[in-house]
UniProtKB/TrEMBL annotation:
Origin superkingdom: Bacteria
The organism's taxonomic lineage, starting at the top: Bacteria, Pseudomonadati, Pseudomonadota, Alphaproteobacteria, Sphingomonadales
InterPro entries: DUF1275 (IPR010699)
Protein name: DUF1275 domain-containing protein
Keywords carried by this UniProt record: Membrane, Transmembrane, Transmembrane helix
Length: 245
């Protein structure tokens, strides 16, 4: 799931990656909103809120939204730099390692929230999650050649609508029947990703209500397990190939 890159990936691997990480992202986004009233991954909404606050002259509040946006961008930038460095060094597990790093930081964020008072804990949670969501989005964008997005629900919903329209044209005999399978493959990916994001949000809020900030640490643990599993699978495959030489 976190090893093969670009055209070496098939639709099954893309769906597995998208559904798993979208569920985690949906859970984190919804749990954070339930707790503090902010979305850490919704950059469209955050930019709109920033523009509204700037128009009303509420500069201090606007700086908060600007910080969220910048944290997301910095997360994507850091992720890309680390991935690029890893690929240049021939580290085939670099994507899994970055996800492992995300999981560790997420677990640390959840645990640190317990020790911080609300005045410090709220901005730490929002900025921290925005950074991690930017980092995660960059990972899936690179590894899938931009076929997979885990938090861009607006774009995926648009793609679903376009796919439905193209399928209607095919059924009416006004589209290329040869495109049917490709369209259905993309629609399965996008619909499944949106549903995973939704269900992840439901589970995330329920987990937060049961465990509080430890739910973020648990999400980090889940990411860590997924990353370590991919790293171990890659190690075993490499060992088998070496044994054939």
């Amino acid at each position: 799931m976190l090893i093969r890159q670009g055209d070496a990936r098939d639709s099954r691997l893309d769906r597995k990656l998208a559904f798993a990480l979208a569920a985690v992202a949906g859970g984190l986004n919804a749990a954070a909103f339930h707790e503090v009233g902010f979305f850490s991954a919704n950059m469209t909404g955050n930019v709109s809120a920033l523009s509204s606050l700037l128009a009303m002259g509420q500069w201090a509040k606007g700086l908060g939204y600007l910080a969220i946006i910048l944290a997301f961008v910095v997360g994507a930038m850091v992720s890309t730099l680390v991935i690029g460095a890893g690929l240049r060094r021939g580290i085939i597990t670099i994507y899994a390692r970055v996800i492992l790093g995300e999981g560790m930081l997420l677990a640390l964020l959840g645990i640190s929230r317990i020790a911080l008072d609300r005045a410090a804990g709220v901005p730490t949670l929002i900025i921290g999650l925005a950074f991690l969501m930017g980092l995660q989005n960059a990972i899936v964008t690179h590894i899938s050649n931009a076929r997979v997005r885990t938090t861009h629900v607006s774009g995926m919903s648009t793609d679903i609508g376009i796919g439905l329209a193209r399928m209607i044209d095919i059924l009416r005999g006004k589209g290329e029947d040869a495109d049917r399978e490709a369209i259905m493959t993309r629609m399965r990916l996008h619909i499944g990703t949106v549903i995973s994001f939704l269900l992840g949000g439901v589970v995330g809020v329920l987990a937060w209500r049961l465990a509080g900030d430890l739910s973020f640490a648990f999400a980090g643990f889940v990411l860590g397990v997924a990353a370590l599993t991919s790293i171990e699978n890659a190690r075993q495959r490499t060992a088998r190939y070496d044994g054939l030489d």
